[in-house]
Structures are given as C-alpha cells and as structure tokens.
Amino acid sequence: MNSEAPRTEPPTPPPPRLNRRRLLLSGAGGLGALAVSGGIGWWARREGSRGPRLWSSDGPGGRVVLPAGAQQGLFVSGYDGTVRSLDPATGAVRWSRPVRAAAAVDGLGDWQLANSGGWRVAAGDGVVCAVSTSHLQAFDAVSGDPRWEVPLPDWDESAFEQGPVVGGGGVFAVHGSSLRCHAAADGALRWSGDPGTSGVPALAGDTLYAAGQHGGVLAFDAGSGERRWSQDAVGRVTVPPVVSGGVVHVLHNGTGVGSAAVFALDAATGRVLWQRGRLPVAGSLSVADGSVCLLGGDRLMALDAAGGDTRWTAEVPVGLGRGISSMTAADGGVYVGTNDERLLAFDPGTGRPRWRDEPRRLEEGTEYARVSLAAAGSAVFRGSRTGLHALGALPSA
Length: 397
Description:
397 residues; mainly beta; Thrombin, subunit H; 4-stranded antiparallel sheet; 4% helix; 45% strand; globular
C-alpha cells in the first residue's frame, strides 16, 4: 500500500500588487490554495460558505472516477500515465499502477496524454479499466494487481476521447469506430460490433448507448451487441449520452453560439420525447434531481428533465487559464470547475450559489489543464494538472 506524505503549509508569499481587474475577478477575500491532507489545517478551518474542504493533494491529477458513489472508492487516471486508487475520505493513495501504452508516432501520444488529462478510465464489477494508445487494461479494484490486458488495433488519435464503460460483467470500449465487449473477469472478447460508433458509451441495464461516428445515437444489446435502434435526428454528439429514468439525454453542440440543442430520447425505442434548440450553451451535460444541467462559456443552465423547460440559469466565471472548464451534477448539488482553479457549487433546485472555492491568485499564463469532476451527493472531487481536491461532505454509509 502506498501513501502520500502529509503536506505542510508553505511560507506566506509576498502580497501581490493589486489591480482593478484582478480584484474584481478574485472576489472579496480570495483565499489561497494552501492544501493539506486529511481535512486538517487552515483549509478545514475556513467558513463553510468558502467551500468545505475535505482534503487536497498535489500528487498527479487527472481524470477522476467514482464507480458507485464515494463509499466504493475514488480512482484517478493521471497526467503521468498512471491509474491510482484513493481513499475518498482522506485522499490517501491505496495503490498506483502504470498503464501500458505504445509510443505514438513523433511523440504525439505523449503530447495528447499531457493535454487530455490522462487515459480514459472506468471502474465497476471489481475492476478498474483504462484505454491507452495500444491496450485495454484491467486492474483489480481492491489490490491494483493487473487482471488482464488486450491489444487494440492501430493507434488512433481519437482514442483520447474514447473510453471504457464497466457493468453487467462486461467491459465496453470504443476504439477507432468499433464497439467491443470484453468479459470483466478475464478480458475474453464477447462480441465486436460493426464500425460506426465513437466517443464514450453509456450503459443502463442491458442496453448500451453510443454516439454514431457521423451523427446520431445508437443502442445495442449489451449481451450480444445486436443493434436495437438508431436515432439520426439529434445530429452529431460529442459528449457521452446520459441515461436517467428511462430517458437518454444527448447534447448536440452545433457549430456556433446559440446552435446547441438537447434531445431526450425514449431509452427503449429511441423516439424523441422532447428537444430544446438554440441554446446559448454547449460543452458539458449532466442529469440529477430531475434537471438536465448544461455548461457553456459563462452560462450554467438547468432544464426540466420531463419536458425541457428552463428551470433556472446562473452566471459562472470564465476561466483565465488555458484549457477546458467542467461541470457535473449529483443529487446534492451542481458543481463547476474552471481552468484557473475555481470550484463553485450551486443548489440543484434553484441554481443559487452555495459556496465558492478559489486560489489566492488567479493566473492567466498557466499550462493547459483539463478539469475533471466527479460528485456524490454534496461531495465533489476535482482533478487537474495541479492536483486533486475534495470538498463538501461525504455521504453516510
């Protein structure tokens, strides 16, 4: 078992020069990112309205995954090409393993890994799976021991945006444009679908949902790979579908401001239940508390999941750094993480701000960072190039 040494509070830096823009952006009393492990120290003593921090780590950040709520574990696919298991309550590292990957031509793979925030990863059924440029690899979720690995076809740049889904005893992965199902126990190939899918699929019950390579949404029998239905009306989908309450929610980003559209499809038939177009948002899609939440630019919006009517909108800061901000929703809150280290929490029913967490200084000239969020109730986990942060309160067992 590995563990990270507790962090000590760094010396107080000299006070920054004040200017009007920085003062307005940082907000009154902007607080520093003096991170400590285990929820002990200055961060934990702050008032709750500033963001109740559980723990923070400057270890390799990246994509964060909660397979079945915070009680089941937290897994991180890092910028350094490793997969780690962490204790959600303390941030202590339980195990860390490198992901096998072949070097890409002219170092493009290394560049893409650094800018994508880590290999795509998923967890469930006792395994943690990662897709790299050359392999689909599975680790034991408890011990981190390698379970199995299978080679993938020739490397494709799109692999960085395509990833696995785990459930029902299977591991489902898209590579290139083909959807495959492997047994979670030993990696044996169960079926391989016809080319034509892309992105990260979504699994609900015995049905797998995936975006079409050239547009639309496809549904497959998870056991056999047989196609159940296709729906072309939604256009091109670039973020994973979200399935909730027998409805598949998909986002069509469009080609310009105001061209985004959200579709709600019947999960059994693919029939369009409702759609909302001309939305001023495009980028992130999440569903919780009966709301379809969307983030784009400086606008956070919640639509009624039953009919698509607007429930509320809220303004969010546009990050000053380089990279992509992110949003996720859980039954306890809606969370937005910006590329300059700010993290905001909103009430899922009203859109009112709950708390706002931000660094002492907002930096504009930062390295490219992709923000990854995972939430369980009122607890949210944030991963980026600068490390890992956990805020809120863990749900009771």
